[in-house]
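Final report, closing paragraph on structural work. Over the funding period we assembled a curated collection of sequence-structure pairs, and we close with a single example.
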Amino acid sequence: MVIYRWLADAVVVFHAAYVLFVICGLLAVLAGALLGWSWIRNPWFRWIHFCFIAVVVLESLIGVECPLTTWENDLRRAAGEDVAQGTFIGRWAHELLFYEAPDWVFTTIYCLFGAVVLAVMVFVPPRWHSGKTGA
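Its predicted structure, as stored:
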């Protein structure tokens, strides 16, 4: 069914956006810390970013497949496709996300990345703005 194929593509595009948010979010915070950007200290942005990577680290440590991957695979099967198949957008986004390596490699990478995000939370902490303008 075409709807399942589209939904699977939507899930994999969302998955790619999730990964990009985690990676680019950290890069933005690091750049912002060096360049004095105040928006990188926004607590909503920082805590959501931290929670996104914390979920990935936790899933990896307990050996749970990412629910987005499971959902995409289920939708592809419902569309009558092999899990490796998909539309152009789905395959393209999938290729950006998935690599062949032992599980321990990914767990190590996720944990190291999560540790860096945590360290940045400590050394470049988020701040609530008081709304005061001076004097």
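Helices lie at 2-35, 43-62, 67-78, 88-97, 103-123. Residues 56 and 110 are 7 Å apart (CA to CA). We thank the funder for supporting this effort.
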